[in-house]
């Protein structure tokens, strides 16, 4: 068995061009995908890397961004001088053996960082010796210099699919007509992933589907992963992340996939999305429409009342007219569609920060067309904060009142252009996030609450005389 | 053992001080064995033996020197830090940004994002070398921000592929005309992250502290601290001393003043490399008195400072006034905290200080968890033996565990201790561990909180604030479970897995 899948090489190839120096870092390295493992109930990463690598990735992604928490007591070889000089395979072997003695998990995912890649440890061989003994353990080569936590996520997912899911004993899985696998937001990188995946699960179940959401508190954990081959459809709900996985599953299990680039926000997008999925799976339209009707009734009831504020019942706030976004392409696309298409704002600067693979960029760019009929967004790919901010400053804004969705790094530039800042991307150090969601029907309303609370507070701070009235 | 400033690379503390990260026994034994290991200063009676470090087959993700070095370089104003590394090393920038803004708020500075740039190395650079990217990034950093100093921090990857960082730094320094200071902080090189303090202090000493022999100031005292509010001026101004507060965020001017001061105090001996270096290079005497945790130690510390700066005639009045000032509140706190059991988890000298504070407040401390242990300090002076001093002045700590922030070992140690609360630093894993075990926790982010007379009040009040949170943590403990096997969940010996006993 070739434990190092070709897929890793593909991902690496697509990332090979480093984009130059980066200020105000907005993602982690491939090893950071250990957070994807932590997001799977019952799975534990085993990291083979330097002493600070694993905790730095975890605390950056989870600790300081949204204060998300998560189970972090990750076994690590904490490579020192000795392993750099003499090789670290023996130390990894010792660590795995002791992990099995101390920890309790359904699946162990060994992840290697920069050092074993550079000194040439044969990690695959060490892991294979445990696999031969029936230990549920897989190996994902997540060398830090070879990719980001996005590509690392695909590497980890692929390792679990090929070395764990595909190796399950028993008869070949039977396709279940109403079971779907969802590949969507990157856990931890997007501070709202837990609430969002919960809402995505809820709406898909609402139209009668069974859902493998795979990550987070709404997931049944590894039982869902083992059921992946039985699904009738892979639903890729993101601009590009997950496409490689879906293509792979198509080739292995003959599963079709449906690619919906924008995670839907608001009733218009969500209802359209549900109808698209229903059609793809040939669902009976009766229950689907019944669910949509019920959800829309609630949603538009709240939206009607929000319209009092939006129409200006107290008329003291200057409501934004232009939406600017600095963030990962998934949320950037969804927010742009919602604020332009549903709220009637004009598209401003849209900066996509996650350094997606070159060959996916055209597709991503295309997905920003027709945010509203005839109105296109013009996204810029830029991982460096300094250059991103230059783009924001350079845009002429004649008569526009800008709103900015971004990360903590945007606080300064938001102030410069006079925009309220709503933190939606990594790092979000000034948001405490628990179960909040910004997608689907219910999430959209929370997004409006957060956005316009920010607008009101900023407006109040800037206009002391208004506040004093 | 002199500090060697001729080489750009600081010798690790493993080599210089014999730092260990894994040990357990009683504090008394550890202090005794330490003095045996590094020549007798005092208290080295018969029975001591060379320190023998334990090892564990199981280990969990820890921290590295790079993070300490980079964080503390980044918060020096008017500088840019370049992390010469793959992108992951720089993911801590978000933390540094939050820290920097919080620090600014506490010190009354204008909050702004610290400037740090990652060279963002990829696989090609691993093959062909990354020095061209480094040169490009240094030029870019200068063009963007016009800093007065640029730091270049290495990473495990650049250390292994052998990039000539010093050569590139020198070359670019000539080109752009400002100091470009290399920080050699590859994480794999030291077993303990605190070596990162030595790295940044080494860089400061070598490059940013000019010798100004004609500008000596008798009223200026360098205070080297881990970071946080200035609790020193209120103590030292009354005896006519001005505080030059460095590390934990400062300006280049403050660093440039270091060589002109009358003396240097270090608020945690883990950071004493800089103080010892200042004495060695510029004759600025290093205060060796035990750290000011607890009343008597604070008295002695102030007296030592007064002695070295010729202010003995002023100090007794200050001591008396301070003691009197805090006496009623100290009495109240002692009354409320009497009978409580505390568990201390922090790094070496800082842990020793916290234990002294808690004991001064009337709290029982029989268990401590130290993230590393330095058998000696760079000065080699037995006066700085903070553990020995703790044991002599306040008694033994029967369960003293040294462990580099290992979650599984801390679980066993806390289970054994059954404390009423945990007080900890490096709260990333310790704080939530205690909370998950149903125990109220006081994380100490700003390590100056426990210092001096006021520190007793600050810490005492903070403990009282967290004790009622047991109501919250009890729920969490009841409704969550760590993924350890049952036998480990019940284990109370942190080193039960270790092959060797402490011989």
The unreliable regions of chain B are none
> Which secondary-structure class do the elements of chain A indicate?
alpha/beta
Q: What is the CATH C-level name of the largest domain in chain A?
A: Alpha Beta
User: How are the strands ordered across the major sheet of chain A?
Assistant: 11-10-9-12-13
Shape of chain B: globular
| Integer average pLDDT of chain A | 93
Regarding quaternary structure, what we see is: heterodimer
CATH architecture descriptor text of the largest domain in chain B: 3-Layer(aba) Sandwich
Largest sheet of chain A: 5 strands, parallel
The chain pair forming the largest interface, with residue counts per chain, is: A-B, 78 and 67 residues
CATH-defined superfamily of the largest domain in chain A: Nitrogenase molybdenum iron protein domain
| Total count of strands of chain A | 13
Helix count of chain A equals 19
The average pLDDT score of chain B comes to 93
Query: What would you give as the CATH superfamily of the largest domain in chain B?
Result: Nitrogenase MoFe cofactor biosynthesis protein NifE, C-terminal
Could you walk me through the main structural features you see in this protein, from its secondary elements to its overall organization?
- The complex is a heterodimer of chains A (469) and B (503).
- Chain A is an alpha/beta fold and 469 residues long.
- Chain A folds into 3 domains: 18-167, Nitrogenase molybdenum iron protein domain (Rossmann fold); 176-285, Rossmann fold, CATH 3.40.50; 317-468, Rossmann fold, CATH 3.40.50.1980.
- In chain A, 46% of the residues lie in helices and 13% in strands.
- Chain A is built from 19 helices and 13 strands.
- Chain A has helices at 6-15, 34-38, 53-63, 81-86, 89-102, 114-119, 123-132, 149-163, 193-206, 222-226, 243-253, 266-280, 285-311, 329-342, 361-366, 385-394, 411-417, 440-462, 464-468; strands at residues 22-23, 43-48, 107-112, 137-141, 176-183, 210-212, 231-236, 257-259, 322-327, 346-352, 379-381, 402-406, 421-423.
- Chain A has a 5-stranded parallel β-sheet, with helices on both faces.
- The radius of gyration of chain A is 23 Å and the shape is globular.
- The N and C termini of chain A lie far apart (74 Å).
- In chain A, 58% of the residues are buried.
- The model of chain A is unreliable at 1-17 (pLDDT under 50).
- Chain B is an alpha/beta fold and 503 residues long.
- Chain B is globular.
- A 6-stranded mixed β-sheet of chain B has the order 1-11-10-9-12-13, sandwiched between helices. Chain B has a 4-stranded parallel β-sheet with strand order 3-2-4-5, with helices on both faces.
- The model of chain B has no long low-confidence stretch (mean pLDDT 93).
- Chain B has helices at residues 13-17, 27-37, 65-74, 93-107, 123-128, 131-145, 156-161, 165-176, 195-207, 233-236, 252-256, 273-282, 295-308, 312-337, 348-360, 386-394, 407-417, 427-436, 452-466, 470-478, 486-489; strands at 23-25, 79-83, 116-118, 149-153, 180-183, 220-224, 242-246, 263-266, 341-346, 364-370, 399-402, 421-424, 441-443.
- Chain B starts with 12 loop residues before the first helix and ends in a 14-residue tail after the last helix.
- Chain B has 3 domains: 65-184, Rossmann fold; 213-302, Nitrogenase molybdenum iron protein domain (Rossmann fold); 312-489, Nitrogenase MoFe cofactor biosynthesis protein NifE, C-terminal (Rossmann fold, 3-Layer(aba) Sandwich), CATH 3.40.50.12380.
- Chain B has 21 helices and 13 strands.
- The longest helix of chain B is centred in the middle third of the chain and has 26 residues, at 312-337.
- The interface between A and B is large, with 78 and 67 residues.
- Strand 1 (22-23) of chain A pairs antiparallel with strand 3 of chain B, so a sheet runs across the interface.
